[in-house]
Automatic annotation (TrEMBL):
EC number: 2.1.1.-
Keyword Zinc belongs to the record: no
Keyword tags: Cobalamin biosynthesis, Methyltransferase, S-adenosyl-L-methionine, Transferase
Top EC class, one word: transferase
Pathway listed: Cofactor biosynthesis; adenosylcobalamin biosynthesis
Annotated PANTHER family: COBALT-PRECORRIN-6B C(15)-METHYLTRANSFERASE (DECARBOXYLATING) (PTHR43182), COBALT-PRECORRIN-7 C(5)-METHYLTRANSFERASE (PTHR43182:SF1)
Species of provenance: Pelotomaculum schinkii
MF terms (GO), sorted A to Z: protein methyltransferase activity
UniProt cross-references to Pfam families, sorted A to Z: Methyltransf_31 (PF13847)
Protein name, per record: Putative cobalt-precorrin-6Y C(15)-methyltransferase (Decarboxylating)
Record-linked CDD domains: AdoMet_MTases (cd02440)
Gene Ontology BP term (one): cobalamin biosynthetic process
Length: 182
């Protein structure tokens, strides 16, 4: 289910989840969860773990609730609030997705770095060049090595008797791992 809330496209979710390298027992934070599409996919993979979907939008929260019910998930909890403050009471994570920051990217990434377990991974999805550059700078500062890929997806649309590939907005996916000694 989607409504008018931004949803991570399937192709971007697949790559984001691959970068996460989830294990069944992981604790996952999905910050700026939107519709919860990544939260749901993560909960389906981390069956012995737990996923926390952090979202501030009432419409997004409603959609996440609907999607939780549709998929019968009991290892997914919605945290209503604004990050980084909304993260304070959560257990330390093994994996973190950042899909939206509401202008609080620096505070979110600082908080995540302090709480992410050694060997943990963070994945930040961005759509603007400014956010990608800022996230890259912060992730390099905190984690050293950062992987970055840009995903450009095109979908087939009908144009009269023909079909065209219509490009969607590219998404930059940045990922890093917290080393024990960094």
């Amino acid at each position: 289910m989607r409504g008018n809330v931004p949803m991570t496209k399937e192709e971007v979710r697949v790559i984001t989840l691959a970068k996460a390298r989830l294990a069944p027992n992981h604790v996952v934070w999905d910050i700026g969860a939107g519709t919860g599409s990544l939260s749901v996919e993560a909960a389906l993979q981390a069956t012995g773990g737990f996923v926390y979907a952090v979202e501030r939008s009432p419409a997004g929260i409603h959609l996440i609730q609907s999607n939780m019910k549709a998929f019968g998930l009991d290892n997914l909890k919605i945290i209503e609030g604004v990050a980084p403050e909304a993260l304070d009471e959560l257990p330390d994570p093994d994996r973190v997705f950042v899909g939206g920051s509401g202008g609080h990217l620096t505070g979110i990434l600082e908080s995540v770095y302090q709480r992410l377990l050694p060997g943990g991974r963070i994945i930040v999805n961005t759509i603007t060049l400014e956010t990608a550059a800022h996230a890259l700078e912060l992730l390099q500062q905190f984690y050293g090595d950062v992987d970055a890929v840009q995903i450009s997806v095109a979908r087939v649309v009908k144009a009269g008797a023909s079909h065209l590939l219509k490009g969607m907005n590219p998404v930059t996916v940045l990922s890093a791992e917290k080393r024990a000694n960094y």
